Amino acid sequence: xxxxxxxxxxxxxxxxxxxxxxxxxxxxxxxxxxxxxxxxxxxxxxxxxxxxxxxxxxxxxxxxxxxxxxxxxxxxxxxxxxxxxxxxxxxxxxxxxxxxxxxxxxxxxxxxxxxxxxxxxxxxxxxxxxxxxxxxxxxxxxxxxxxxxxxxxxxxxxxxxxxxxxxxxxxxxxxxxxxxxxxxxxxxxxxxxxxxxxxxxxxxxxxxxxxxxxxxxxxxxxxxxxxxxxxxxxxxxxxxxxxxxxxxxxxxxxxxxxxxxxxxxxxxxxxxxxxxxxxxxxxxxxxxxxxxxxxxxxxxxxxxxxxxxxxxxxx
Length: 315
Ligand code: R5P
Prior knowledge:
CATH architecture of the largest domain: 3-Layer(aba) Sandwich
CATH topology of the largest domain: Rossmann fold
Helix content: 25-40%
Largest sheet: 6 strands, parallel
Bound molecules: ribose-5-phosphate
CATH class of the largest domain: Alpha Beta
Number of domains: 2
Number of helices: 9
Strand content: 15-25%
Number of strands: 16
Structural class: alpha/beta
Order of helices and strands: EHEEEHEHEHEEHEHEEEEHEHEEH
Shape: elongated
Distance between the termini: 7 Å
């Protein structure tokens, strides 16, 4: 089963191909001068894309990533169907429909946090993006989705996977924490998993978001005096959540505070802000960033394995 990617997914897709002992196939993706996306399956790769089931590694972030992912899936679908409609050039190879077997692995799913309507008239953008993608593929693997509930029961075959085992390995090796903190209730299950894998204490804070840049934590006694603490979350964006949690930990005597997450967005100077509040930052490479030290590929490989075991004929 070849592992495909456009220009933005090369590293994770190559890592995934190596783990699964599969071929990596680079697809062409670039931008027209006006910014619109152009994708192409190179002629020398058409046969690989048609030969058996394929997995495309592609992020739906930023917005241009959504278009690129849709176009890449569309190109793969058309090549597998042997769709020659609107073709100006010649194609002399096989054109019979090779059937289903297109899987999408998404390291970072954009719009994950737009998972509810806070008022009538809003778009549940997280679900709309999945509706579009699922029209073009047979199954989707998503890494550490903020709130998987939004995509459950939508009829598509979706496998939710987590990089917490790899994050736990990284923290154990590089930080050796005594205590894991979830900075809000939403990250409790991820942070608990890390604490259990490392074998250390765990607690969580309750967070209220005032606006995109301001959050408040409910004061809580934490048994962290003299301890090395790692805060674990699914993503870091402005860094506000981590900085406020770190302040609370330091006030209560933590000697070192580190931050770990799957998705390092680091918007608006977040890394400089974090440098004043934590001793280290650890993320996966789901999004390219200067703190990406953990590979997202093993988790995606687990997800594909689970999906394939449900669809043995597609392997
Ligand atoms: C939200 O609940 C997420 O799990 C993160 O805690 C949040 O997105 C982090 O955002 P920021 O870094 O801007 O505080």
